[in-house]
Specification:
about 100 residues; alpha+beta; 3 helices; 3 strands; about 20% strand
Length: about 100
């Protein structure tokens, strides 16, 4: 190759696939010790429900034994589950919160 020739650089095409993060259900499990008032409080304070919806979800948990309270990206679902669990334990309640893939 002589000094006057120009070398072409190979062209690289990079394709990046962006996927939506997986969604996870936050599920409250009913028990005989956690008060309905506490469950309503967590739904209002941690999940930003209005009072009517919080009451309805709490009743569903009580009647059915469990209810999905939110469907969120994994990190947020996990964080909210931890917040509820820590708050429940600090108040002496055994409320169980389960996170599972949608």
């Amino acid at each position: 190759m002589s000094d006057t020739q120009i070398r072409e650089k190979p062209k690289t095409i990079t394709e990046i696939k962006v996927t939506e993060p997986g969604r996870y259900k936050v599920i409250y499990m009913n028990d005989e010790l956690t008060t309905m008032e506490f469950v309503v409080e967590t739904l209002l304070d941690i999940f930003d429900y209005n009072p009517e919806d919080a009451d309805g979800i709490t009743l569903k948990i009580h009647e059915d034994g469990l209810a999905v309270v939110a469907v969120l990206p994994y990190e947020i679902a996990e964080q909210k589950g931890i917040e509820v669990t820590v708050l429940a334990r600090s108040r002496g309640f055994p409320l169980q919160v389960k996170i599972e893939k949608e």
